[in-house]
């Protein structure tokens, strides 16, 4: 349940933060009328995410290419947004209606805002869209305790994300335009740093840039700490939250006894409302890191995979594995060294008297993280999804990528050419492990 909460919460938090930053900035520069296009862009990113996930093969090079191009375009758009933010801030200090002086054509601003929100939210949206398939497909029955807990955990993460976004937008009403600009720049810089390193990692992995000892010394610590990106966003959000709290307590507007009773009641109601939203954002800034930290501690208790038994092809370029060696209904892991030196792992488990579950030790959702056996269950090491053993060897969900085989005189026979086709799935893991 906690892992399910972390999946939706971490990505939902990123989406909520992106939307909030854009809305807060638009509001403080007199461009609130464009806020609806941020929501439209986020909705469009959900549609694009569905198309990419379910109409295209979401694995290997295609996944990396889409991620790389999306982040590269996002980086360029964020640079343009920063220029807009800084320039409009200067204009705003000179004239209250300065928002109308930049990009006088509203259509240009509309397209830019919508496109920016699409590019910045599409990747976290896609990770959330992948969540239902991982909890609904690979379970032992249609409804069970595991499914209910995972669904509840995922829903909790989404609810917390929505509350965070609402609280962030409502509580920042007390911010000055200058503080809003500073917070926007801080959060955008954190996002850009992550995008820059991710694109660089993909380019080096693809061989576009040469991997020298110097670049490896730089890349290895960066890649090993890429999972800390969310905590960078949390830290930036915390700084902005503290700024909001200080701004509220330093607000110059005070209740005056000279006001008529209706105005006094309205002022008191607004102050009470602001306090509630500030309390909500403060509580969430404690709750969100706490939940994610607990899950991270549990997740770091990594389960080691059993060693892969090395296999080599015969003269006809086939891997031959005797049935008798895999008939004990336990998970067996094998490793084939491809032509480019990549270790391609595959697993075999006996499903029935005559059927075997054979697939790569990787899936289209979690990559080459691998599977392990616990009792009579086969479990994905990354997302903890339990495989329905009879479905191993078939497409779907977090199932192992199917691997073709045939039976011949009491042996399981696998073509080495089929193993060579999946080297890209395991290549990323091999490239940076040293």
Short description:
The chain has 434 residues and is an alpha+beta fold.
What is the helix content? 55-70%
Order of helices and strands: HHHHHHHHHEEEEEEEEEEHH
How large is the share of residues in beta strands? 5-15%
The counted number of beta strands is 10
Q: Which structural category do the helix and sheet elements fall into?
A: alpha+beta
Rg value: 26 Å
Low-confidence residue ranges:
94-104, 137-141, 429-434
CA-based shape: elongated
User: Which sequence of strands runs across the widest sheet?
Assistant: 1-3-4-5
Number of helices: 11
Main beta sheet, described?
4 strands, mixed
State mean pLDDT (0 to 100 scale).
Answer: 78
Distance N to C terminus:
33 Å
What does the model show?
This protein is of the alpha+beta class. 59% of the residues lie in helices and 10% in strands. The chain has helices at 2-28, 35-55, 60-94, 106-136, 145-171, 177-205, 213-224, 229-249, 261-299, 416-420, 423-431, and strands at residues 309-311, 318-322, 332-337, 343-350, 356-360, 371-374, 377-380, 386-387, 406-408, 411-415. Strands 1-3-4-5 form a four-stranded mixed β-sheet. Strands 2-10-9 form a three-stranded antiparallel β-sheet. α1 runs antiparallel to α2. The longest helix has 39 residues, at 261-299. The protein is elongated and about 100 Å long.
């Amino acid at each position: 349940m906690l892992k399910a909460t972390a999946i939706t919460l971490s990505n939902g938090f990123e989406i909520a933060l992106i939307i909030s930053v854009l809305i807060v900035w638009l509001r403080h520069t007199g461009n609130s009328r464009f806020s609806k296009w941020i929501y439209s862009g986020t909705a469009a990113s959900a549609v694009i995410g569905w198309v990419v996930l379910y109409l295209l093969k979401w694995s290997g090079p295609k996944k990396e290419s889409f991620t790389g191009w999306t982040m590269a375009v996002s980086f360029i758009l964020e640079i343009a947004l920063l220029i807009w933010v800084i320039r409009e801030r200067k204009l705003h200090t000179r004239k209250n209606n300065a928002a109308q002086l930049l990009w006088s054509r509203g259509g240009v601003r509309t397209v830019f805002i919508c496109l920016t929100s699409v590019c910045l939210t599409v990747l976290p949206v896609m990770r959330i869209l992948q969540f239902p398939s991982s909890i609904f497909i690979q379970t032992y029955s249609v409804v069970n305790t595991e499914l209910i807990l995972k669904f509840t955990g995922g829903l909790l993460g989404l609810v917390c994300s929505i509350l965070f976004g609402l609280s962030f937008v409502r509580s920042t009403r007390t911010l000055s335009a200058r503080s809003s600009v500073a917070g926007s720049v801080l959060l955008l810089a954190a996002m850009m740093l992550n995008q820059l390193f991710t694109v660089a990692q993909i380019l080096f992995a693809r061989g576009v840039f040469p991997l020298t000892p110097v670049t490896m010394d730089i890349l290895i610590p960066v890649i090993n700490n890429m999972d800390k990106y969310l905590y960078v966003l949390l830290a930036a959000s915390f700084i902005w939250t503290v700024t909001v709290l200080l701004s509220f307590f330093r607000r110059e507007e005070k209740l005056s006894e000279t006001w008529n009773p209706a105005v006094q009641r309205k002022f008191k109601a607004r102050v009470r409302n602001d306090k509630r939203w500030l309390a909500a954002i403060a509580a969430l800034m404690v709750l969100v890191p706490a939940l994610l930290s607990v899950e991270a501690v549990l997740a770091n208790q990594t389960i080691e995979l059993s060693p892969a038994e090395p296999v080599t092809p015969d003269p006809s370029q086939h891997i031959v594995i005797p049935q008798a060696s895999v008939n004990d209904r336990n998970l067996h892991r094998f490793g084939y060294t491809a032509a480019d030196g990549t270790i391609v792992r595959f697993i075999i488990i006996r499903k029935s008297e005559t059927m075997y579950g054979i697939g790569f030790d990787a899936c289209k959702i979690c990559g080459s993280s691998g599977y392990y056996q616990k009792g009579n269950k086969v479990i994905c090491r990354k997302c903890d999804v339990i495989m329905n053993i009879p479905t191993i060897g078939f497409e779907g969900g977090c199932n192992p990528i199917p691997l073709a085989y045939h039976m011949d005189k009491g042996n399981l026979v696998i073509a080495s050419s089929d193993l060579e086709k999946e080297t890209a799935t395991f290549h990323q893991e091999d490239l940076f492990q040293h």
